[in-house]
Specification:
- It is a single chain.
- By secondary structure, the chain is mostly helical.
- The protein folds into 2 domains: 36 residues, no CATH class; 45 residues, no CATH class.
């Protein structure tokens, strides 16, 4: 079965799905293909960067994300053995 699209998007991760959303905004006929046969059942994102929120806002989606998300205002991580390795040799 042959078909035709203007834009073929490889990968149904966040970047691929956002690309499909942008394409739909401009009436571009797009198809998303992915190696997984089903949807991911649980989210895998650890956070959203400010630029991501700006893009979501351009689609009118930022408020919905912010309302149902957990807000972390500060994070501090410390791994002394890795820090020492980076200072000495430039890598862990």
């Amino acid at each position: 079965m042959a078909s035709s699209v203007d834009l073929l998007i490889i990968g149904a991760g966040p970047a691929g799905l956002m690309m499909a959303l942008w394409a739909s905004r401009y009436n571009i006929n797009a198809r998303v293909v992915d190696e997984k046969s089903s949807r991911v059942q649980k989210g895998q994102a650890d956070g959203l960067h400010p630029r991501t929120l700006e893009i979501l806002d351009s689609f009118g989606l930022a408020e919905r994300f912010l309302k149902c998300s957990y807000h972390v205002h500060e994070i501090c991580s410390w791994v002394s053995c890795l820090l020492k390795a980076w200072r000495v040799g430039g890598r862990a």
